[in-house]
């Protein structure tokens, strides 16, 4: 039996803790650092996600995980000049795997703070250098260049967790876990997410261009490893808003849509020209932008204060101006891990520029959902695949 002792379980009082294989060796090696229980939950889920993204698209993929759900996921699609600025990589010629991670981290930078990283391809020195300047807990990849490993070993005073996954590893078809002394067993969710699952299109608009099909596959694969209920908005090869673990489907759609809206608003002229002091760290910029985009900023101004990360007081980004900017969002794709029970989900998705949807289908209110899509000219596919993940 191959066993690896852990610092503790989900919480410090949960000792002892370990991971083990009843037969054979663990499928990963610890190259640096000491893994924790949640680290490995994130790592193993994230590894599956990026492997499936690479298989589905043929492109290097990356994921940024927090608490057993992705904060972001992406494949390697070149960045626009605006996104280079938003993601703090202006003027840098990024490698394909670095591009994938920059996109994954950029989906929701606040949620990615202290993330666990997964890469589908070898971690190169450029990706390691980008990671070195970000707050992150660890990484899993199939291999590392010598230079990348040396860089990562210096992170977090030498304690940064580096895992090397065996890409040839295949788990058994049945998986088990124990809850309150009771064993659960099920067939692994090995369903393949391919363009074939987008074939059934019940809406009047049936055309889904290849780029949107790619984005829908990214959304669905991301949802396969997101705590349910879950909804994912995607655009240009990356997640831009993920709503995880909500009891109500429409609350998932709202949560993910609000994140997608903030992703769009970060690209607005108002945000791009914020007068940050040169000494302000990236996480503090992210926090300040979040405050600036919310009602908190106007509350601060009403109290005679404003974030001291700025060299001068920025003007209010009014609700009307935000709505005008968000109205330019278009071509967004959206995936759901189960059917939409009502058209209210489509109403909310439309507000964030959604033009393409992939969802399970099979609700008794499918007619209402289809009708709402038709009202807004949205193309929707019924996948007939449920992707609950717990």
Question: Characteristics of this structure?
Answer:
single chain, 390 residues, alpha/beta, 6-stranded mixed β-sheet, 5-stranded mixed β-sheet, globular
Order of helices and strands: EEEHEEHHEHEHEEEHEEHHHHHEHEHE
Please count the beta strands (DSSP E, at least 2 residues each). 15
Mean of residue pLDDT? Answer: 95
The largest sheet is: 6 strands, mixed
- What is the CA-atom radius of gyration, in angstroms? 21 Å
Task: Bin the strand percentage.
Answer: 15-25%
Q: What is the number of helical segments per DSSP (H or I, 4+ residues)?
A: 13
Helix/strand class: alpha/beta
- The outline comes out as globular
Uncertain stretches of 5 or more adjacent residues: none
* Residue share in helix: 25-40%
Order of strands in the sheet with the most strands? 3-8-7-6-4-5
Q: Termini, distance in Å?
A: 27 Å
In short:
The protein is an alpha/beta fold. The protein has 13 helices and 15 strands. It has a six-stranded mixed sheet with strand order 3-8-7-6-4-5. It has a five-stranded mixed sheet with strand order 12-11-13-14-15, with helices on both faces. It has a two-stranded antiparallel sheet with strand order 1-2.
Helix and strand arrangement:
Elements lengths: L1 E4 L12 E4 L6 E5 L4 H21 L3 E6 L2 E7 L5 H6 L9 H11 L8 E5 L5 H8 L3 E6 L4 H7 L8 E5 L8 E6 L2 E6 L22 H15 L5 E6 L2 E7 L4 H17 L3 H4 L9 H12 L1 H8 L16 H8 L5 E5 L7 H8 L2 E6 L6 H11 L2 E4 L8
Parallel strand pairs: 6-7, 7-8, 13-14, 14-15
Antiparallel strand pairs: 1-2, 3-8, 4-5, 4-6, 9-10, 11-12, 11-13
Task: Please give a structural write-up.
It contains 13 helices and 15 strands. Helix 4 links the parallel strand 6 and strand 7. 35% of the residues lie in helices and 21% in strands. A six-stranded mixed sheet has the order 3-8-7-6-4-5. It is of the alpha/beta class and 390 residues long.
